[in-house]
Structure prediction request, 151 residues.
Amino acid sequence: MGLRKHLSTAEIVEQAVFARKLFSDEFGTITNVVFMGMGEPLHNVDNVIKASSIMVDEQGLQFSPRKVTVSTSGLVPEIKRFLNESNCDLAVSLNATTDEVRDWIMPINRRYNLSTLLGTLREELRLRPKSIVLFEYVMLAGVNDRSGILG
Prediction:
């Protein structure tokens, strides 16, 4: 579909408010938010940081910071900024154990390879030991589900 625009801070927060109103009667209170699924959230890092801050603020939506997660493919400079400026969780999509496979699955790896990405995370977590980073791994049959390259 291609990029049409980045959502503003207000548009992002509005989605959470709308979801709470729409689903709270049927499913109970919405307690978790994950930024993912419609592009790379950290390409819009300014508005994502602001929106996640509003979501966890006592004067805002009052989500627990441990219940708001931003998922990324691995934009290293934006990861550093997010971990420095946000108290929400970060999830990193790895999807491969080697650069060769990850290059094929996730082209961002050509810019920020596994060594750079994992080294950055190690360093940032040393500086901020209370930060939480989750790892995501989608299994693709014959591609990244065995020890061999691409199947």
Remarks:
- Helices lie at 9-27, 45-56, 76-85, 99-105, 114-127.
